Amino acid sequence: MATHLTHWGTFESVSDGERLTAVRPWRGDPEPMPLIENVASAQHHRTRIAQPHVRKGWLDHGPGAPGRGDDPFVPVSWETALELLSGELRRVYDEHGAEAVYGGSYGWASAGRFHHAQSQVHRFLNCLGGYVRHVNSYSMGTSNVLMPHILGELHWMIGHSTTKTVIAEHTELVVAFGGLSPKNSAVTPGGVSRHHSRGWVSAAHARGCRFISVGPLRDDITAEADAEWLAPRPGTDAALMLALAQILDAEELADKPFLDKYTVGFERFAEYLRGRTDGVVKNAQWAEQITGIPAERIRALAHEMAGARTLVTVSWSLQRAHHGEQPVWAGLALAAMLGQIGLPGGGFGHGYGSAGMVGEPARGLSIPRFPQGHNRIETFIPVARIADMLLEPGTPYEYNGLHLRYPDIRLVYWAGGNPFHHHQDLARLRTAFARPDTIVVHDAFWTATTRHADIVLPATMTIERDDFGAGENDPLFVPMPALTRPHGQARDDYAIFAELSEKLGFAKEFTEGRTAQEWLRHLYDEWRPEGLPDFDTFWAGEGIELPVAAEQVLFADFRADPEQHPLTTPTGRIEIFSETIDSFGYSDCPGHPVWLEPAEWLGGPASQRFPLQLIANQPRSKLHSQLDVGAHSQSTKIAGREPVRLHPQDAAARGLRAGDIVRIVNDRGSCLAGLILDDAVRPGVAQLSTGAWYDPDPDDASFCRHGNPNVLTADRPSSTLSQGCTGQLTLVEIQAHRGEVPELAVSRPPATA
Ligand code: PGD
């Protein structure tokens, strides 16, 4: 039995050297996840990449040859692939410089710190001369930018959120905007040892804590919460929060001493709530028109929140939307008005129910990391602007007060991510991906991204290599010795870069003369704090428990003494009005929280033609697109298609029945999906999770035969401020699919020549 980490859980397994023969959850995990089944079943799936491949058009006609995404691939030897690749890298760096190389390579890759794909590719490209990078993430791209202006650095805040144990002990009312999704909090970047999605909620509920889940899906909170479900029109949470704030203000329920001492700009915000700036009082009737929540319920809720130890928590999904800053900022303003920030169990949270590490006690020690070196190139893009960058080189744009220009990219290098999973408007992305001279991808599988590359290099999975790792804020630091031989000719990203760096003449700089095993020992020895075992003992063991904080209350020290412990915002206070943001003059993100109509919502004109709001959320049966071919993920499909959930009433109005293969459409594209009827979905809403591998129709790239919602979502930034991804919500119509259900191509390897 060996212990092994994934982002979605820790498992113990037995292997015969070729494959895992038994897999079971780690014995310390109180709430194990079935997702671990995907690992063993995917390892030797026919979509594993067994050897290097080069796109035929690129091989025959050279860089820039058309046909990317359509051409067959030519299987080649490692020697040929690395010769071709090193020659092309030399050409691009010599002719166009490092500013012509996009090495952002966004993606979650795998657990395990040394073989962390982004660290590997970034170190390699840094040795080569640098690269254009990305900033922020698809998860939190809007909050990444907003939070430092109004509350503090987001990652620090996530790591120091009030612990779930404190909430279980002290909170009387949790108002969870966006819910507390157990499927999301089961995942922690880097790995999770003990899942806690349900235990703390049960404990809080047993003590008498009430939960209110605000969102379009009733099951976005665990049943143990016995929650009241409020289902506003999707995308209107900010209006609901503003009305709650208006009631607190008008009825003098707001905590004035708290606002005076710990915040700035409340009066500017209050003028807006009172209708002095635009003639519209943001009262309960106003919010009822927008949200569909009865004014009476809004009024009562404001009183309930003011009368209890209340935690206002906002999920990350709410900021992954057009004007996604507003629900986060309005939620913070509301919590500030309640005056409980810094008190045990009260105040503000961001991301409970979005990822496992939020609300876990901070880990005292970071774990060893593979150094990435220094990037000499300063040019970057906000991560979700990739298609704009490729399509519009030289075009100026604004971001967070900066005036920037898109670089002219000739070569794209990706390892550990799947843009044809994570990006929006995939038909547009495909057009963008046709622009560069060369696209290089390392992956273990024939994902849609590898199918849109020119040079495809097969990477190992974690079970095929030696590594170590621990999740963010997770105490268990685990040795991860290889459990099986690699599939086919797959190589570790490190081995690929080591050989390439040899060919390019900087092997010494990249490898420092170490093998992967020697790096593990070196990184561990360099890091080992006193009292921890030596490397050999660690490697032979089942993992060590690192110390964590006992309990924590977010901003308790700031509350105790704001002079001694100011926030890292420009004023050191919570900024309900931000002079900095206001000074940028962005009409789509002014200086305080406001209600701004999203481009696509059920109350807007676009809903006349597309009357269903599609929620494109995180999947239950896999992490993002990872191991979609695995047994557990496949067991949830309907005739091989991703399931879409619809309220029975909406299905009946369209003559649709459970199990039907339906076509989801809007002006950007369409996809097939298998229909599930479920009254846990708000009427007017459809839910299709992300993660089905994009399977474009050969004649129409905007039609996905498998069920990837990103053919439907808009490549529209959340705002000029953050330029974040808005993949969560889009408007669609759903129709019966007529004719034969086309075969899937993405579950087979691509054609070879
Ligand atoms: P993954 O499926 O995790 O998706 O986007 P991301 O690109 O992270 O992709 C990781 C890829 O890395 C997989 O193809 C996997 O096989 C590969 N891989 C794993 N390990 C290794 C390795 O060691 N080496 C190499 N070379 N490859 C490896 C996720 C992104 O999607 C995120 S974080 C979010 S939150 C977004 N959410 C939404 C959303 O809510 N709605 C929509 N519509 N779209 C979204 N997209 C975003």
Task: Describe the fold and architecture.
There is one protein chain. The chain is of the alpha/beta class and 753 residues long. The protein folds into three domains: 270 residues, Rossmann fold, CATH 3.40.50.740; 230 residues, Dimethylsulfoxide Reductase, domain 2, CATH 3.40.228; 132 residues, Beta Barrel (Barwin-like endoglucanases). 29% of the residues lie in helices and 17% in strands. The protein has 27 helices and 31 strands. Strands 5-4-19-18-17-6 form a six-stranded mixed beta sheet. The chain has a six-stranded mixed beta barrel with strand order 24-28-25-27-26-31. A hairpin with a 4-residue loop joins strand 26 and strand 27. Helix 4 runs parallel beside helix 20 and helix 10 packs across helix 14. The longest helix has 19 residues. The model has no long low-confidence stretch (mean pLDDT 97).
Essential attributes:
6-stranded mixed beta sheet, Barwin-like endoglucanases, 6-stranded mixed barrel, Dimethylsulfoxide Reductase, domain 2, 17% strand, 3 domains, alpha/beta, 29% helix, 31 strands
Radius of gyration: 25 Å
Provide the domain count: 3
The CATH architecture name of the largest domain reads 3-Layer(aba) Sandwich
Structural class by secondary-structure content? alpha/beta
- Provide the CATH top-level class of the largest domain: Alpha Beta
Question: Which range best describes the helical content: under 10%, 10-25%, 25-40%, 40-55%, 55-70% or over 70%?
Answer: 25-40%
The major sheet is characterized as: 6 strands, mixed
Distinct ligand kinds: ligand PGD
Average pLDDT figure:
97
- Measured by DSSP, the beta-strand proportion falls in 15-25%
* Biggest sheet, spatial arrangement of strands: 5-4-19-18-17-6
**Span between N and C termini?**
42 Å
The poorly predicted ranges are none
Please tally the β strands and state the result.
Answer: 31
